[in-house]
Automatic annotation (TrEMBL):
Ranges where the record places region Disordered: 718-742
Leading EC class: transferase
GO molecular function: ubiquitin protein ligase activity; zinc ion binding
Protein name per its UniProtKB record: RING-type E3 ubiquitin transferase
Limits of the B30.2/SPRY domain: 75-255
E.C. numbers: 2.3.2.27
Species whose genome carries this gene: Grus japonensis
Residues in coiled coil: none
Cited InterPro entries: B30.2/SPRY, B30.2/SPRY_sf, ConA-like_dom_sf, RNF123/RKP/RSPRY1, SPRY_dom, SPRY_RNF123, TPR_RNF123/RKP
Organism lineage: Eukaryota, Metazoa, Chordata, Craniata, Vertebrata
Domain of life (superkingdom): Eukaryota
SMART domains attached to this UniProt entry: SPRY
Amino acid sequence: MTSRGAGTAFSRKNYRLSTEPEKSKVTGIVNSRLLNDYLHRVFTSADGNQPAAAYRKHLTFQNLQEHLDRLLAEENGSEDSQDQVAEGRLGPSAVVLDHTSGFEGLLLVDDDLLGVIGHSNFGSIRATTCVYKGKWIYEVLISSQGLMQIGWCTLNCRFNQEEGVGDTPDSYAYDGNRVRKWNVTTTNYGKSWAAGDIVSCLIDLDEGTIAFCLNGISLGTAFDNITRGAGMAYFPAISLSFKESVAFNFGSRPLRYPLVEGYRPLQDPPVADLVKARKLLGYLKNVIHIGIDVTEGKLVEKDTSMWQLQGEPTVLITLAHIFNYFSPLMCKVYLVEDVLMTFLLSILERGGSVEAHPLIQQLLDLMWLLMEEYEVHECLKQLLMSLLRAYRFSPIIPDLGLQIHYLRLTIAVLKHEKSRKYLLSNVLFDVLRSVVFFYIKSPLRVEEAGLQELIPTTWWPNRFTKEGKESKEVKEEGAEERLRRRAYERGCQRLKKRIEVVEGLQVQILKLLLNNKDRGGGEASRYIFLNKFRKFLQENASNRGNLTVLCPPEYMVCFLHRLIAALRFFWDGHKAKSPAALSSEEAYIPPQLFYNGKVDYFDLQRLGGLLSHLKKTLKDDLAAKANVLIDPAELQAVTMDDLDEDEESATSTAQSQRPSAALAIGGALARPGWLSSPTLGRANRFLSTAAVSLMNPRRPLGNLEKIKVRTLSVEQRTEEDIEGSHGNEGLLLGRPPEEPDQPITENSLLEVLDGIVMMYNLSVHQQLGKMVGVSDDVNEYAMALKDTEEKISRCPKRRRDIHEELLKSQKVFSEKLNHLSRRLAWINVTIYSKEKMQDIYWLLRVCIRTIEHGDRTGSLFAFMPEFYLSVAMNSYSALKNYFSPVNSMEELPGYEETLMRLAAILAKHFADSRIVGTDIRDSLMQALASYVCYPHSLHAVERIPEEQRISMMKNLLAPYEQRPWAQTNWILVRLWRGCGFGYRYTRLPHLLKTKPEDASLPSLQKPCPSTLLQQHMAVLLRSDRDLAPSFLNSVLNQLNWAFSEFIGMIQEIQQAAERLERNFVDSRQLKVCATCFDLSVSLLRVLEMTVTLAPEIFLDWNRPSSELLLRRLAQLLNQVLNRVTAERNLFDRVVNLRLPGLESVDHYPILVAVTGILVRLLVDTDVQG
């Protein structure tokens, strides 16, 4: 199309214009009379009145442009109105944040200079424009609900890292985090804000007042009598703490809540353009509404919802004239939001499915046909940004109608193939935080969200004791409570149905993005999505990403569930077409994805160390097992230092493997899985890969042709690289012989599944644990209310003052519980529902199958990313701890089998020499320790094959010096607890009388010993004459160290306590002291277990090591008894101090353990004698 302007004329070549009447039949242009009537009906005057036909100017396409110019110029007095608006304001007409001079501290400001993120302790920034007269308003879109102070300041205000807006004399602020207002001093004001809220800041410089609104609801006047006069002008300003973020709207977009009469936005709306755009939209509506019946020679009314262009030249040329003026306007964000988005939303307001409104698709076709490409791109970008903003910052109402409205329009736009592909390629993940579309925010204020109408009756469980534990006494539910519970559950079901509507729309969006059949005009949507999705994961996995692109965990949780639903839809759809493929219930990731370079795992840690080193050390195994040759260009040169370390590591590994095939490496203390660094020490890396290469004898190379592979970046991949074609297996290149030759599903879906597992590991698990806090709050308040009601019942009638205070407390607790129980209903539906639990369970089973398939490949198992094992452990933990009591894991299909398969993985891999990362090894050990704590999971361990059980016990009995021994020792203790002397308690006996509230420590579960695993241990100790002495010597060495450390620490504590000056013992020192004591007790219990199960190790003089072991044991027991039982000794004095943190330190635990060993030795000596 030619460039646009006031004097633009359409070329006849482009539009085939015709002035000759005889050509009308050929071109489709209607006769001049009908055309004149049509154009006058479409292009009405501003007052809407049509002049009589005799006085109307005859319209043709030749003079239409002149007529249109005249219509658009009518009543356009915008210049005068803009001059009036500017009075009382100083600064640029386009108001933005002053990122050059008007800030304090480190801040990240968006490209449009309207969004800001705190990057220091308390950064402040102001706008470029100030006001000194009149009434003004601006809006702040709250993206995070942390510490911020929003309001107004003067040019003279000086801020720093401690003082911000509202902390100086001429600055005024509202703080919704602490629910206060600030002007040097502070008082209570307003309501608490939440992410997704909009704060309106109003200043009236005629009356001298400042007020604030939250989501359009006035919070009242915050300040009056503010300083005015010569030289006093106020700037919009904000101070915010680290990582808090907001976006300002000074008027560059329509205000969301412009309801306050007389107040103007700081930035003037584009009045002239608005008038013009609305007129042009009216003409466009007329074209859609009016049809031409050529055969009858008259104009007819048409059903606008089913309008189609159908190649009518008259209509097309008319539209071309409209779009000639309309297109440039649609590049401006204000007009897109105010005119275009409003119009498109009105089309969908008639109800019905999105498919029932093809008009939006027709309009998008017109845009691509009649607008310049750059104009369509900008228009679509602004439209999606406006939709995202509207969805994110819409208040929660009972039927979620606003959210549904915006999602429906998003779906309608994305249904248009060309628009979808452009948005996917350039906008959804590049410009927008599009994951917001899949998030359903949780209302902080349940009253405004209408939850009181949805859930009129509240209820909470009363089955907790004062210690917060679940009461074991099953109490009969009263009739009144049963009615309340059922009414509450009905309310929760009503809420669930409404939220499911939103979730269904969100899944529809993902189904459109995962469409792989729309290959018209280039790559299918799914492959564009895959590349963007991978980049999104990389930004969030690196922890080095810009704060503006990092996805908040709460968004990631919702995105994960919607993506699982869409993925399973396509997976099972493929299964229906290809019966040989696997269903989604059998889904797993084949192991070749981890080493063939087709999927980028960034710098994420592999089980065997760094990928670059694995490629060097296992290149022969790759060639032999998978017929894969690594591209030589990818094998980086190894420095001389690395080579030396490699040789030393190989030698040490070969030596260490002789006594036992599964020695663990390193002895670092356990760290949480989410803190694991992307790289380990070089020694560990080389040690691991050298060990892996020795594990399997190399096979002679087969006759199959070797395939040279190289790692592809996300941008380099094509559809063929993913799906494969003509003998190319795509993502499945390099199938190992252990992997079945069976189709799984479409390769692209495998990569989506891999990304879902990675997402869970990045932040979903952490967020699931965080949201449990609301349930804990409900339990605490329920206990407080129950306690208060008991006090009311016991309160003497004469003490009215106490009775009144108790009634006030009861009212506060009841109101808080009503609020929390409704909020908990929302969280249970959106995060902890049965369907969400099934998603996490499905993910657990996917990880288990993936690990099992990877394990069969031998040395190539080292290529698997660590996060697969982490997700397997964490998802089981989430199912067990986070979803109950609302949903029970026992009800899940195949639960027992899944528990056993996970137990087999933990039992095998906690000491797997192919796994080198100390963090993941510690996590496996801790998961196994947790597994043997509970009867249900312990039985799962007992059900794994006998060979695996024996191997696990052998690994647990390996000498402690070679690895982190504390966790191993806890596992053995837990297998024994309940069988030892005086070792059946669940509450610490010595605290029951003095401090009953401390007697129940969280680590003291009900004993559940395993006689089966004890028998395996006994057989191993008896049969392997080398294993028993090496194991016991290491236990005795650790006991000697732990008890000596404990004694040294209590000496320091005693000395500090005896000093005259006031001394405070460091809490960390007390914690370490208590840990050393607990370790000593647990090591003694392991010795008791060994003496009981295999006494001949100490008492059979035919064994060469028996006498030495018995002597060492006797010396250590003697040392313990001397230190603990001597009269008025150091141990007594420290125990009597009753220091917080040393509750577990007492005579009882350690003396009963020593007694148990001595009793067994005496009994078994008699038997042997």
